[in-house]
Amino acid sequence: MAGKKRSKKDPPEFRNPQLGDALQTQDMAAVAFALRHGPTVVPMMRPGQRDNPRDGGEVWTYRDPKTGDVALLLFSDATHQPEALPPTVALQSPGWLRAFLGTHEAEITTVFLDIAGPHPMQATPADLIAALDA
């Protein structure tokens, strides 16, 4: 049933349909709007502890063994995450994403959105920070 409401016992949906639509058009303004107003699916090495709100877990990043460059991978939907990545994901808020990028901007070389498709996009951390601050 398309109009069915989720009950409190249904698991959360790990997706941002607005971000998926924006990636489909490859419109950076629409991507920026979606990132500012909705969650982002982030792969996690270790999830945060539920009983400790200060423990946000450990975000998974990719380090190129040849160059040492670090990439952050973000997804519009958990189903777009490649199987080679850790299976744990978190649904992070725009505020979290802005804080994370601000803290790690010097380390992260590039950010990939839906790297395995269906509509991948690449940006610098500075570009995403500017989009989130707009």
TrEMBL record:
Region (Disordered): 1-20
Superkingdom of this protein's organism: Bacteria
Protein name (database record): Dehydrogenase
